[in-house]
């Protein structure tokens, strides 16, 4: 009984990372938009970094989901 409760608790804690992804994506895109509005000529040069930041942040969310699923069903 205690092991099952610990499993659910651990999976819930692992899902906190998925909430951080939403915050991270908002931060990344918000800063890109603010910078693009200040200096539109440099926006195209920063687009690759924007996509890289999006990919890394999204990978962290998928990783936290994977950890939660492994804790639940592993």
TrEMBL record:
Matching InterPro entries: ATP_synth_F0_csu (IPR000454), ATP_synth_F0_csu_sf (IPR038662), ATPase_proteolipid_c-like_dom (IPR002379), F/V-ATP_Csub_sf (IPR035921)
CDD domains, per the entry: ATP-synt_Fo_c_ATP5G3
Record's keyword terms, sorted: ATP synthesis, Cell membrane, CF(0), Hydrogen ion transport, Ion transport, Lipid-binding, Membrane, Transmembrane, Transmembrane helix, Transport
Membrane topology label: Multi-pass membrane protein
Pfam families cross-referenced by the UniProt entry: ATP-synt_C
Residues of the V-ATPase proteolipid subunit C-like domain: 9-71
Gene Ontology cellular-component terms listed: plasma membrane; proton-transporting ATP synthase complex; proton-transporting two-sector ATPase complex, proton-transporting domain
SUPFAM superfamilies in alphabetical order: F1F0 ATP synthase subunit C
Keyword Ion transport: yes
GO MF: lipid binding; proton-transporting ATP synthase activity, rotational mechanism
Residue numbers marked as site, Reversibly protonated during proton transport: 58
Intracellular or extracellular location(s): Cell membrane; Membrane
HAMAP family: ATP_synth_c_bact
Function per UniProt: Key component of the F(0) channel; it plays a direct role in translocation across the membrane. A homomeric c-ring of between 10-14 subunits forms the central stalk rotor element with the F(1) delta and epsilon subunits. F(1)F(0) ATP synthase produces ATP from ADP in the presence of a proton or sodium gradient. F-type ATPases consist of two structural domains, F(1) containing the extramembraneous catalytic core and F(0) containing the membrane proton channel, linked together by a central stalk and a peripheral stalk. During catalysis, ATP synthesis in the catalytic domain of F(1) is coupled via a rotary mechanism of the central stalk subunits to proton translocation.
Family to which this protein belongs: Belongs to the ATPase C chain family.
PANTHER family: ATP SYNTHASE LIPID-BINDING PROTEIN, MITOCHONDRIAL (PTHR10031), ATPASE PROTEIN 9 (PTHR10031:SF0)
Name of this protein: ATP synthase subunit c
